[in-house]
Every structure is written in C-alpha cells, then in structure tokens.
Write a structure and sequence with these properties.
There is one protein chain. It is built from three helices and three strands; from the N terminus they run E-E-H-E-H-H. With 110 residues, the chain is of the alpha+beta class. It has one domain: Maf protein (Alpha-Beta Complex). It has a three-stranded antiparallel sheet. The radius of gyration is 18 Å and the shape is elongated. InterPro entries: ITPase-like_fam, Maf-like. Keywords: Hydrolase. This is Maf-like protein. Pfam families: Maf.
Length: 110
C-alpha cells in the first residue's frame, strides 16, 4: 500500500531551491486597559540537499508526522543539513519569544 503522505517510498527532495518557512501571528491584550498589540513573524529555513537515506530514516522514525509542517530544525538528523535560519528557532518551533515579549510590553504600555 502506498503512503498517504508521499506518492513514493522516499519523500520528495528538500534542498536549497526554496526555503521552508513558518508564519506566526500574535495578539496581546492588557485586560486592565484593553490596550492591544499585534504582530506577525516569518522565519525561513534554508536546507542543503538532504540525502535520500536521511529522508527515509526520518519517515521511518515517524516523528516528522507529529510536527506542524514536518519542520524539525532541532532533530539531530536534520541539523547538519541546515544551511541557515532567518528568524528564530523558537518561532520556527511554534512561538516566537522575541515577538511575544515585544507585544506584551507594548500592550502593557511600556
């Protein structure tokens, strides 16, 4: 039976042709004053070509199926193939701490 995730046993190649990206949006509200602050953060992951055996191993492990978009920049198999990150690792993994702190301070009027 074919995988529902990939049309072939090995996932399609990842590489430098187009970076993977994430977009995060947040809204912070100071409940006492009603003041709000909002922001959007985009991060990019530029991968070097990832060998087929590494891609196959990631699929066999199965962890990538439990990550939004399969982006596991912290995974030991993927780390050597990351050329560079634009943005922060925490924003790629889910919640951009710098944006959150800026919005909390802004909503608080600081």
């Amino acid at each position: 039976m074919r995988s529902i995730f990939f049309p072939s046993p090995v996932p399609p190649p990842l590489g430098p042709a187009s970076p993977a990206s994430t977009v995060g949006a947040m809204l912070a509200t100071d409940l006492a004053s009603g003041r709000t602050a909002e922001g959007v953060e985009r991060s990019y992951i530029h991968f070097r070509p990832i060998p087929a055996d590494v891609r196959h191993q990631l699929v066999e492990e199965g962890e990538v199926f439990y990550c939004a978009g399969g982006l596991m920049v912290e995974h030991p198999l993927l780390e050597p193939h990351i050329e560079r990150l634009e943005g922060s690792q925490c924003s790629i993994m889910g919640l951009g701490k710098q944006l959150l702190m800026r919005l909390l301070l802004q909503a608080a009027g600081v």
